[in-house]
Specification:
The structure is a homodimer.
Chain A (H helix, E strand, L loop, with lengths): L2 E4 L8 H11 L4 E2 H5 L1 H10 L10 E4 L2 E4 L1 H12 L6 H25 L12 H28 L13 H16 L1 H7 L4 H11 L2 H7 L23
Parallel strand pairs in A: 1-2
Antiparallel strand pairs in A: 1-3, 3-4
């Protein structure tokens, strides 16, 4: 089985949730657009027919093409044991992943509240209003819930005694939020010891450590989903 | 196995995607808050510990509690054969469901672009701008993709020769969009014959027909996700 991952080569974005799971598991993959540039991704997208992806990221597994981060991770989880096999844990981990996906969508809307195709600079007033609501209400609501999810397990990870794709996704969303909202996240940090625990455990996984220190890890920037604009952050 | 569905009793909302799959399959369920009122839902939410839902809808299957529409449908699909069993079709149908979920989230943001906790009337200007972008760009982009998904199968449904949970979800999203944007959807209709085909097939399923004509089907209204505000619609 050879994997080709298709995603924008300049950003972490949604593709990063897939990259992290693959890297943590030591699964080989070709991050196509890192070689070809965005043009290679766009021409691949344009050439696909039938069951084509709605948007990147998508994974081509010897011709089986899967888009949507949560669906890709479901597949990788099933195939490579990156998810628990018992029924209750299996749907629980997917539920955590889908809730993280909802959080990521809201993060994106903070800087693009009214026009997804326009620049942030064209919707700064609306973004400021949305960011205020996000920092005050939505962010703590999501983090409270994720903290509860991490507390629900007596073990170290979200489930039992080993990491799953939801752990790597939780790591990434914490990373992104710390980059985007450093002041707000510093204020909130004491409320979330279990999230800090899981974040630290993921960061210490050998595959993740190697990845984060490699040039394969693209730095956060203001082209991606998590964007640091100082005016959108506050304590 | 007995199912208890927890969702707001006054709206179709996200719960409707679960209700429709259950009704189409003839699976018995207790729509709890239709009996108890919203108070019953809220007190149930507040009492849950450990692996608690982030938000309704959630399904309690003899103590196994699953939230997130796509996760609930994945579970029902696995358990009741409402999804294909072969690998490629299985992840494809889930991918369609997740893309419909993204569309539903964008529909919600049309009337709540900057503050999820405030009334539509407090963000009408922002909503008007977002609605314009949605009608012109995002809606056709999603519908083009869904049309392609419906065309990708030579059979009648999204997959092969029988309905899956993605078909009932596709039906619901078309229903909702026709209610919310009657003028825009009328203009776009000729471009989407395959979507009309699947919509019609789902509407004719005996379980769905019976449900739609029952009082279990709550009419669309301006409390739900799909809301008709004439000022947000246009040809």
């Amino acid at each position: 089985m050879s994997y080709r991952l298709f995603y924008w080569p300049q950003i972490q974005g949604r593709g990063e949730f897939v990259r992290l799971a693959l890297e943590a598991a030591g699964i080989d993959y070709d991050d196509v657009a890192r070689r070809t540039g965005a043009e290679g991704l766009m021409s691949d997208m344009a050439a696909r027919r039938g069951r084509a992806p709605f948007a990147p990221p998508y994974l081509d597994a010897d011709g089986l093409v899967i888009a949507q981060v949560a669906d890709i991770l479901l597949y990788l989880g099933d195939r490579h044991g990156l998810a628990p096999s018992n029924i209750a844990d299996r749907y629980w981990i997917h539920q955590v992943q889908l809730t993280i996906a909802d959080l990521v969508a809201e993060v994106h809307d903070v800087h693009h509240p009214v026009d997804l195709s326009a620049y942030y600079e064209e919707q700064k007033d609306e973004a400021a209003r949305r960011a205020g609501v996000f920092r005050a209400a939505r962010l703590p609501k999501f983090l409270d819930w994720l903290e509860g999810a991490a507390e629900a397990n007596a073990g170290e990870w979200l489930i039992d005694h080993r990491w799953t794709y939801a752990d790597t996704s939780l790591f990434q969303v914490i990373e992104g939020l710390r980059y985007m909202f450093p002041r707000r996240m510093a204020t909130l940090a004491p409320r979330y010891p279990a999230l800090a625990r899981v974040h630290g455990l993921v960061a210490a996984l050998p595959g993740v450590r190697a990845y984060l220190s490699s040039e394969r890890r693209i730095p956060f920037n203001t082209q991606g989903i998590f964007r640091h604009y100082a005016e959108l952050d506050a304590e």
